[in-house]
Amino acid sequence: MKAVVQDRFGPPEQVLRVTDVDRPEPGPGEVLVRLRATSVNTPDWIAVAGVPYVLRLSARAKGAVRGTDVAGTVEALGAGVSGFAVGDAVIGTKWGSGFPTAGTFAEYTVTRADRLIPKPEGIGFADAAASVMSGMTAHAAVAEVFAAGPGQRILVNGASGGVGTFAVQIARHRGAEVTAVCGPANLDLVRGLGAARAIDYTATDFTAGPDRYDAILDNVLNHPPRRVLRALASGGVYLPNSIGNSGGLLAGLAKMAGATLLGAAGRADVRSVDGGFTPERLTAVADLVASGAVRPVIDRTYPLEETPAAVARMYSHRARGNIVITMGE
């Protein structure tokens, strides 16, 4: 089968190559999926680029196949698998503990059966792939960790990215008033997704303004956490969700740690966002997409052969919404 294999850490277009590898076989409790689409997420560019550098200690590079989001059809079942049949359309994930080295940037992948759900008929494979990690992370943030609802004001920093575009829509669907922070080229996009107010971060510093919010989902961490806390209303919740894009030894990990320490010291209600897979969480996202309440925003779609360019696009931090890779018919 065709797969995109990593040779070392570095720029995606220099360290990723398309080649032939053996098709995996499902073990007990596993499912072989013929992939129709996947998407590029933050863990993918981190694992390819090897930044922050400290993460190179836990992510093997040579020979790795990256990618975590699964959207495709069941090709074969391992021993003991029930609830699925060959030919079923499924969505799910390979994201668990650590960076996958036999991932979804390939024509086929094997994943645990308990990390898949049936794909709703009303969702195409590209939209399904875009909804997995980004959708689950956004849902965890604004529907679970902070349960947005009527009468609440939530600010989403980095609102035009993969997680941000889902978070704006989910929070708005739940009745919250959403303020979206993004670059000037994406202001109309986030307004169209339901944001009551859109802030151009190049012109306005939301941490210095008079407005206060019941929750701030920070997908960028481009401000020191102490400054961000100034924009919280009394009893507000800060949701840091980024390692930053500065590279180096630690990148934004220091800011994440700083935010956590502020919470531990009682300076604010700081909560971590774990967007990991649960069947209930992915089903909730899929149902929102299938109903039309939420739409995945796709920046660009690339064929499998152009995966290095897709990861480079993600690494540029310029994508509007999600980046999808398709495997054809």
UniProtKB/TrEMBL annotation:
Keyword Oxidoreductase included in the entry's annotation: yes
InterPro entries with a match to the protein in the record: ADH-like_N (IPR013154), ER (IPR020843), GroES-like_sf (IPR011032), NAD(P)-bd_dom_sf (IPR036291), Quin_OxRdtase/zeta-crystal_CS (IPR002364), YIM1/Zinc_Alcohol_DH_Fams (IPR050700)
Gene3D superfamilies in UniProt: Medium-chain alcohol dehydrogenases, catalytic domain, NAD(P)-binding Rossmann-like Domain
Keywords assigned: Oxidoreductase
Annotated ranges, domain Enoyl reductase (ER): 10-325
Organism, as annotated: Glycomyces albidus
SMART domains assigned: PKS_ER
Protein name: Zinc-binding dehydrogenase
One annotated GO molecular function: zinc ion binding
The keyword Transport appears for this protein: no
